[in-house]
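Re: [ENG-882] Designed sequences occasionally contain unexpected residues at chain ends

Forwarding the minimal case from QA. Structure tokens:
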């Protein structure tokens, strides 16, 4: 039996924190559930999942549908697309059987690359390698989520760049239905002996997935800013996520001067730091650009926005002394500190 290898290369950068990340998790579960109901897919489809943030890893090596167990997706700081492509090419070499005089290899692999941001690493070499050695023997479909993905970079990889960005919150479940329907159709066609017809994008627009044209605009950056902090009592990390507030009449102003409204605060696991890139954030926004400071998700302290002289954020419950959970320094917070007017480091999305 020739296998149909499907790779999911998933952006799990910090801008995905919260609902998008939860939806992505559910989307993977529902794709597998739906595909398992298709006899042809059950026989041919094999799945692998690669996750990328600042760091990259194969979270599920290639397995058949029945053995596939949806992984708990990580979250990290950064968007190492170049490294993710390198990992993908390595996995294709390892996992996809080539046709030789002695064996029929696997069908052409299909890759769904899903991202919501701009790469934070160098992508040139990986893209060049992809185009030279893989583009002709794999079908890569790049899927952008939200308006900030770098379609220029994705267009260098593949003509098939689609966007899921009407912002209804249903995006990823539509994506899941579309992926499972097109993969099932592909495996059925292969099953009845047709030559590989390839994944068709023609039905994508029926489910609200639009093909990104060459002429589409450059990415809008700085839609999301995130900060990480730690609870001063429990030392556990959290992530604050803010979204740019659209300001009419302020076109052309740098988003770095704009206002960001609080979306939410999310508790993090320590693995967040393992999936983040080494380089700390370079950009910064001033705290007076931020609207809304939530309480600590771990201990309930009134603010998550108290700054130590080490440059890191912690939670704080009012004036007094406390130990910084990052550097162990003793910090005194007076009246009004933890409030407005200081610059803070900013994650890289
Ligand atoms: Zn706390
Ligand atoms: Zn500190």
């Amino acid at each position: 039996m020739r296998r149909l290898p499907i790779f999911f290369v998933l952006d799990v950068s910090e801008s995905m924190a919260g609902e998008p990340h939860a939806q992505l998790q559910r989307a993977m579960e529902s794709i597998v559930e739906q595909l398992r109901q298709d006899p042809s897919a059950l026989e041919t489809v094999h799945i692998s999942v690669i996750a990328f943030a600042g760091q990259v890893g194969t979270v599920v090596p290639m397995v058949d549908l029945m053995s596939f167990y949806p992984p708990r997706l990580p979250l990290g700081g950064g968007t190492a697309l170049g490294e993710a492509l390198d990992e993908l090419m390595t996995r294709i070499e390892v996992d996809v059987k080539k046709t030789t005089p002695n064996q029929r290899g696997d069908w052409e692999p299909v890759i769904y690359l899903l991202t919501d941001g701009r790469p934070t690493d160098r992508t040139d070499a990986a893209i060049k390698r992809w185009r030279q050695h893989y583009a002709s023997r794999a079908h890569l479909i790049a899927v952008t989520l939200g308006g900030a993905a770098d379609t220029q970079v994705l267009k260098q990889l593949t003509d098939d760049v689609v966007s899921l960005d009407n912002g209804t919150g249903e995006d990823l479940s539509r994506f899941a239905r579309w992926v499972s329907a097109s993969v099932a159709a592909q495996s059925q066609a292969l099953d009845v002996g047709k030559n590989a017809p390839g994944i068709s994008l023609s039905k994508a627009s029926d489910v609200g997935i639009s093909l990104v044209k060459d002429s589409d605009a450059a990415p809008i950056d700085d839609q999301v800013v995130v900060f990480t902090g730690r609870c001063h009592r429990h030392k556990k990390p959290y992530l604050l996520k803010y979204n740019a507030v659209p300001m009419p009449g302020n076109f052309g102003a740098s988003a770095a001067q704009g206002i960001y409204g609080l979306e939410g605060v999310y508790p993090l696991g320590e693995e967040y730091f393992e999936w983040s890139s080494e380089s700390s954030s370079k950009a910064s926004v001033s705290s007076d650009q931020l609207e809304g400071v939530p309480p600590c998700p771990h201990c309930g302290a009134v603010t998550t926005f108290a700054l130590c002289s080490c440059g890191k954020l912690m939670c704080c419950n009012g004036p007094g002394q406390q130990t910084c959970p990052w550097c162990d320094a003793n910090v005194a917070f007076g009246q009004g500190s933890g409030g407005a007017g200081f610059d803070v480091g900013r994650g890289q999305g």
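QA comment: On inspection the terminal residues look reasonable. Residues 308, 310, 312, 324, 326-327, 329 surround zinc ion (ligand 2) (CB under 6 Å). Proposing we downgrade this to a documentation issue.
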